[in-house]
């Protein structure tokens, strides 16, 4: 979708909290996939873990990182993960919690509507 709407829509990944840190809630699937990070203890560690996440997931568009105050997560209830469409400061689409609660088709429909292509 990022390629399809390039020049019309900006896509960003927002890294918020580590979903399954080894020191809090380690999941077996993370162990199998060797995605093992403890909860970042400072901004530098958060940047490092976020970078590893972006590389591991193969994200091809810009990523930004929520601060240690977690203001973005608090404002948008991004945990565990969600997709949003925001235009002119308004939320036009908010998915259900992912990864199972969101569907790219729903975001594509909201994008088409926002761009005037119903």
UniProtKB/TrEMBL annotation:
InterPro entries: Iodothyronine_deiodinase. GO terms for biological process: thyroid hormone metabolic process. It is an enzyme of class 1 (oxidoreductase). Keywords: Oxidoreductase. Its EC number is 1.21.99.4. GO terms for molecular function: thyroxine 5'-deiodinase activity. Signal peptide: none annotated. It comes from the Bacteria. This is Type I thyroxine 5'-deiodinase. It comes from Tunturiibacter gelidiferens.
């Amino acid at each position: 979708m990022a390629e399809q709407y390039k020049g019309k829509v900006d896509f960003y990944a927002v890294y918020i909290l580590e979903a399954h840190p080894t020191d809090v809630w380690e999941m077996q699937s993370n162990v199998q996939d060797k995605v093992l990070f403890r909860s970042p203890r400072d901004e530098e560690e958060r940047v490092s873990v976020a970078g590893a996440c972006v590389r591991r997931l193969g994200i091809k568009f810009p990523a930004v990182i929520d601060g240690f105050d977690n203001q973005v997560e608090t404002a948008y209830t991004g945990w565990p993960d969600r997709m949003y469409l925001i235009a002119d400061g308004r939320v036009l689409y908010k998915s259900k919690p992912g990864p199972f609660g969101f569907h790219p088709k729903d975001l594509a429909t909201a994008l088409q509507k926002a761009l005037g292509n119903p």
